[in-house]
Design goal:
The protein has a seven-stranded mixed beta sheet with strand order 2-3-4-1-5-7-6, sandwiched between helices. The chain has one domain: Rossmann fold (3-Layer(aba) Sandwich), CATH 3.40.50.1470. The model has no long low-confidence stretch (mean pLDDT about 95). It is built from six helices and seven strands. Helix 1 packs across helix 5 and helix 5 runs antiparallel to helix 6. With about 180 residues, the chain is α/β, with parallel strands linked by helices. The radius of gyration is 15 Å and the shape is globular.
Length: about 180
């Protein structure tokens, strides 16, 4: 089993913000797999699906971004998953809008959601899919702001690639996904 975690903030006021591209990606993946991410368990909305012969758990932590690790840690322990069975999808201001970066492990890069997950798992050795949202002078306003119509076209495309990358990560491996989708 693999845990596919999209980071974001719960609530309709955040649904289209830059900080929620992880949630958007999990939603797109759930739609494609005809899964519902609606069970409230371990401080997260979860849904089960299948990619190839691998069972996956789609996860949207409901703790707000900075405490995402609480849900991820509880789910990993409950399902007895190692860090290598986890893929986290999240926004990254250090990448230009629409860029996609996949890594097998690494630090938080200053992302509070990732800091929380690393702290709760006790390791940085889990795959991540970073989606570029660009940067502005006011970081908080930027991440909590909505995408413009033009930006949304780019984000829609990169979310499609992120969903395809999840399939490759689950069915093949992180290196194959990196070679195919890192832009």
């Amino acid at each position: 089993m693999k845990l596919i975690v999209g980071l974001g903030n719960p609530g309709p006021e955040y649904s289209q913000t830059r900080h929620n591209v992880g949630f958007m990606t999990v939603d797109r993946l759930a739609e494609e797999l005809k899964a519902e991410v609606n069970k409230n368990k371990f401080k997260a909305l979860i849904g089960e699906a299948q990619i190839g012969c691998e069972k996956i758990l789609l996860v949207k932590p409901q703790t707000y971004m900075n405490l995402s690790g609480e849900a991820v840690g509880m789910l990993a322990r409950w399902y007895k998953l190692s860090a290598e069975d986890i893929v986290v999808i999240y926004d990254d201001m250090d990448l230009p809008l629409g860029k996609l970066r996949i890594r097998p492990q690494g630090g938080s890069g200053g992302h509070n959601g990732m800091k929380s997950i690393i702290a709760h798992l006790g390791t940085e050795k889990f795959a991540r899919i970073r989606i570029g949202i660009g940067r502005s002078e006011d970081s908080i306003k930027h991440v909590l702001g909505n995408f413009s119509t033009e930006e949304m076209k780019q984000i829609d495309s990169v979310i499609s690639d992120a969903v395809k990358a999840v399939h490759v990560l689950v069915c093949r491996d992180v290196n194959t996904a990196m070679n195919k989708y890192n832009r």
